[in-house]
Specification:
By secondary structure, this protein is of the alpha/beta class. The chain is built from 16 helices and eight strands. The model is unreliable at about 325-385 (pLDDT under 50).
Amino acid sequence: MSLYEKMTVEGVLLLDGEVGGGLRKMVPEQESTKLVPASILLEDPEKVFSLHLSYIKAGAQVITTNTYATVETRVEQLLGAGSRWAEMMTTACRMAVKAREASGKDVLIAGSLPPLNGSYRPDKVGAVEDLLPVYRRHVAIMAEHVDLFICETMSTALEAWAAASAAAESGKPVWVAWNLLDDGPRCSCNSVTCSKATAAGPRLRSGESLEEAWELIAELKPDAVLVNCVMPETIMAAIPYLAQMGTKIFGGYGNGFTCIPEGWTVQNGGIAALGKRRDLTPKLYADMALEWVDAGARVVGGCCEVGPDYIAEMQSRLAPELSGSQVGKACFELNEASVSSQASTECLTLNGYSTSSSAWSNNFLSQMSNLPKRRPPSLEDIAFHK
């Protein structure tokens, strides 16, 4: 059984958070380039390793390669380093592998396949015949280093199909993450386009429905369908639609932006033009992620403006439900079935706790029986100590 098969048998997988944004924050403004996540691979790749490792330490079970910004045409246009593109791609993959090895943990590495002509711009996606060969080159370099491919921030159905088709040719599992229009009280765009589109249900930035997007890639049999780089509230609205697609895994990972306006580009306003929500604390984000899990999501994580502190909060709240969590199974048995001494001993022994104190055991059982039945309890819910 491969590591991927082992980790996707059951439970929830915790994805990492922002990669490109996290790297930008590690570089002093006066030293930054127009494409920090790519230039850093040439100038200081150890920072990429460090960021990956910080996510693993926070509890991430899936880390994403720093290849979102390393599109050859952009690397040439903004850095004049197109001739070093393959080197940058390989370095990005090696930093992820190095972080996993350094952690000593079972962690999946997802090879990021991004929009090739800019994020959030369905009007710039281009023709499939132009996209497919480029995605194939990305896949060819990454395949030996990654456990799966994640086609992320896909704003049109055809863009997702092109990326997923190239990824599927590798024989590796494929995850597809669509980017949707945001609407609601937390969105500051006040976009008529968004309001009209989302009134009929979640829509890709192209205006296509999730059902239409799924119909185009269904034949590729992706392992997971997700939505990403949207407001976390938008993910909850999309979950019921993703659940109907019948894939092994579905879920989402949101951003902390206030608005992604139509026509936005990095060159026109930069990341600052997208704003940052002041209300979206790690606790609030984790609250919403728990709702996604309650609705059946098996992959949750973060995107732009969602860093290691958010992942750590989700890990602490989701611990019993995460893939490979033995304590979750034992504690869930306590909470859902008869609360037995045998079950409590199993739960504790699995996690290195002493069960010798009868007074402690009685207190533990009492508190377990009073926990809400909505979801398996986390260790934070239980007042006991090693």
